[in-house]
Design a protein that fits this description.
Layout (H helix, E strand, L loop, with lengths): L3 E3 L2 E4 L3 H12 L4 E5 L7 H4 L3 E2 L9 H12 L1 H5 L10 E6 L4 H13 L7 E4 H7 L7 E7 L3 E2 L2 H14 L3 E4 L3 E6 L4 E5 L4 E4 L1 E4 L6 H6 L7 E3 L3 E4 L9 E4 L8 E5 L5 E5 L16 H14 L8 E5 L3 E3 L6 E4 L6 E5 L9 H14 L22
Parallel strand pairs: 1-12, 2-3, 2-13, 3-9, 5-16, 13-22
Antiparallel strand pairs: 4-8, 5-7, 6-7, 10-11, 11-12, 14-20, 15-18, 15-19, 16-17, 17-18, 21-22
Amino acid sequence: MSRVHGSDVLIVGGGMVGTATAFFLTQRGQRVTLFEQQLVGQQASGTNFGNVRRQGRPLFELPMANRASAIWRRMPELVGSDVEYLQRGHLRICYRDRPDYLERFATYAAEAAPLGLSLEILEGAALRSRFPFFGPEVLAGSWSAEDGHANPRLAAPAFARAAARGGATILEQVEVLAAVHDGAQFEVNLAEGSRWRAPALLIAAGAWSAPLAAAFGEPVALVTRAPTMSVTEPVPYAIEPSIGVSTPVEQESVYFRQIPRGNVIIGGSTRGPSWTDARRAPVVPENTLSQLRQIRRLVPGFGVLQLIRVWSGVESYTPDDTPVIGASARVPGLFYGFGFSGSGFQLSPGAGQTLAELIATGSTPIDLRPYSIQRFATPVKER
């Protein structure tokens, strides 16, 4: 017979949300076991752009984003590792052919200020004096001095190591065959034969979360996509903030950041296909070329730079581009943290702390109603 292992909380998924939740649970004295089918942080959590931005999010996300921002500032102290977090600011720009976005920037800044996000609108000489490298099409920008960027390849592994030091069991390259609830506890069965039981289960498996949630009667129609990512040769370090284009046109939505080593990391523009069964997100050459055209439009000087690497990863998107975070509406002790729709890197530490708080104590001051999985429930038709 297979051996049965006990725990307080089982976590399926070793991305940023899963590892951050595991870490904060160990700080609350919980016994945690985390299962990851590949390596910690290998997919969306480790292949994203690395934006640690709050601006541009829906206003209801700002309380959790503010919580996350406080964690990012303390990462070396909390997890004992440098994840290359740099609080060098974040700028969203708009082009001249969309002047209505300048008004949108101002409206958002006014609405975000009472929620703890301070923004400055820059245009004309004020913008050009601070950012002289922009192309002539750039009209204005929304500046957040307290945002920044970090290295996504380092963050989830850092949380996982810190969780392990706190007593968590981190199991990589294990396949979860099934997760069930017997009315009292959850049981996770692994392909290698072991069984794990606990009174609480968190599904934080990114693009692989939908079948697990559906097995508990709470389906979510996740769509998988692949971001277009690239990095240039190193050049002298001159641009500190993370910068992106605010636009309704996907091809135009590029963003970049320069790291102190000199390389310019570029993301955005057209996204490609990805497949959960193959665990693969290929780079589409046409998308990379589109990205290069758009980044040169934003910063003409980048036209002389050479790319040295391109990559992608498997991201998952919910129907409303809002993540699922919080307790199940059907099964006591079941929790979710997935579907971050391409903008979860900054939010994940806050989501992890919030989920740990909710799992350990049964409550949290963060309003989780906008993130509830119940919003996807099929209404019961009256007879």
